[in-house]
Amino acid sequence: MHEARAEIVANVWKLVAAPGDEVGAGDVIAVLETMKMEIPVVAPAAGTIEEVRVTQGQIVQEGDVIAVIA
């Protein structure tokens, strides 16, 4: 299991991947927004999105799990 985590306090602007989606290492799975900047959250490894733990519009803290990849 791998976890994609937020690197900064931000708003979840866009979810790109959903549970069941296949992703490659480095694929964008979500986009965070802070101070008018967009920060992509990428998959740390290839696999299947098992769980997305955030919703669009949610505020996340540094280190929060965005998605779990199996």
Q: How many helical stretches?
A: 0
Protein structure class:
mainly beta
Distance between the termini: 5 Å
Tell the overall outline.
globular
Q: Sketch the topology as an H/E string, one letter per element.
A: EEEEEEEE
Could you tell me the mean pLDDT?
97
Q: In terms of quaternary structure, what is this?
A: single chain
The number of distinct β-strands equals 8
Strand proportion: over 45%
Strand order of the largest sheet: 1-8-6-3
Report on the biggest sheet: 4 strands, antiparallel
- Stretches where pLDDT falls below 50 for ≥5 residues? none
Helical proportion, percent range: under 10%
User: Taking Cα atoms only, what radius of gyration do you get, to the nearest Å?
Assistant: 11 Å
